Task: structure prediction
Amino acid sequence: MYLAPDKAEALAARLRTFLAAQPRVRVVENEEVQLALDGQLGGCQIACEGGKVVVHFWAPGRSLVRRVVEARETKGALHLQALRFGQREPAPLRLESAALPPASRRGRREFRSRVLAAIAREWAGWRPSPLVALELTSGLAREQGEQPLEFFLFRHRHSIAAAVAPPPGRSQAVVDGALIALLLWADRLPSQCEGVPVSHMMLVLPEGQCGPTLGRVPVLRDAERISVYQLDDAAGHLRPLSPLTDGNLESVLRAAPAAARTLPAAAEGLWNQIRRLCPRATVTQGGDGVAFHLHGLTFARTARGPEAMIASFYLRPGPGGACPGLGGRDALAALDAGTHG
Result:
């Protein structure tokens, strides 16, 4: 029993989407729970090739492989028709979303769906994959019988990406522990995913609880592979965070003023002297005066008042553009010489 290639791909995608959206799944066959996928050393792999969709579920002490030929979704469950090895006629197999405590079930599911959608937009081209999670008990006590973190696994060609997100309302200790959980999980994933390397890691952290993690990530050996984000619920996307901007209320980048075509006479004379001393220097003119730059850095300006203090030193042109004494002459020459070295 083979499926058309497009139908097989659609069936595999439906399985991946359902499993990726559920934090816990029970695999039910013959009205008996065969195994449970709950982020504890369990997982699932889906293969689609030659018109066949083969799914492999595993958990501690149990493994189950079936070839799926049909899927029908109802509220909280995916009803499959599946074949055992050597079987000619398919039999029912059901994937159920395992119940969470009533007080948190809806919130956790909605949070997971929002984060999953936001990550999919951020990692364009990556597809969600069924979880292969690690039991994380060290330093991460379960809260009200729940796993305190949400795990997300994505695949793209021959690479995998892992993401961890603490749901809203978790303690600072749980949020801080998300980084450890991500590193431990990413370290174990290749051995559980046929040796496929983890190329990207992501943390989605609650607002106001990111500081400790942002301070730790830069000193890690895998820092270049780790991205830290906040979920913007209103816009439905992720906002990147950086240790360099943590704590800033606002950062504003303004466009540099266009280079002036005609400089005032006094500034023109000064510019000629600076250009002889600093061949790589540039000049711009704006509403706040004339400024001189080297490799994008402003080292002098002719602005008046407090604006002049922005530059490293201030040159005031004299009559005819000359700079009496030109106290910055030696400094300019040294600066230009230093850049050539």
Q: What stands out?
A: The chain is about 25% helix and 30% strand. The chain has three domains: 5-97, 103-241, 265-340.
